[in-house]
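Why Leucine-rich repeat-containing G-protein coupled receptor 4-like? Reviewers of the renewal asked for a concrete example.
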Amino acid sequence: MWFMWEIGLTHLETLNLSFTLVTDSGLKKLSGLTALKFDWTGFKNLQSLEICGGGLTDAGVKNIKDLPSLTLLNLSQNCNLTNKSLELISGLNALVSLNVSNSNITNDGLPYLKPLKNLRSLSLESCKVTVAEIKKLQSTALPNLVSFRPE
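Here is what the prediction returned.
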């Protein structure tokens, strides 16, 4: 395994892991990197995180749940994510945009989003959710939600 500082990336500020087939174990290995501007314990100010198209599961989302400053979270194309992931991130109160499209999220997981009062954009495309349930959530718990998919 190579480390960022070994190839001269000592000032790396952004790391996009989209479509890299990152798995839970790979995500866990990233948590120990010390040459990045952040590590999982030092992510407290991280505002945007995109881990798309990989092998992320609910177990990996446990590493994300303690990032209080996240405003954008894109975990789309991770087909093994379930309602448990929504439960795990339900404490990310700063979230403005959430994308968990193409996962195993169902209507049963939507109530976990109720605490996310700042949520303005929600994408659940190709999930087992209905527009009626999303609209119900919007009208009862998420008044700031202005954009959601499916529509």
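Residues 87 and 112 are 5 Å apart (CA to CA). This is the kind of structural detail the renewal will allow us to pursue systematically.
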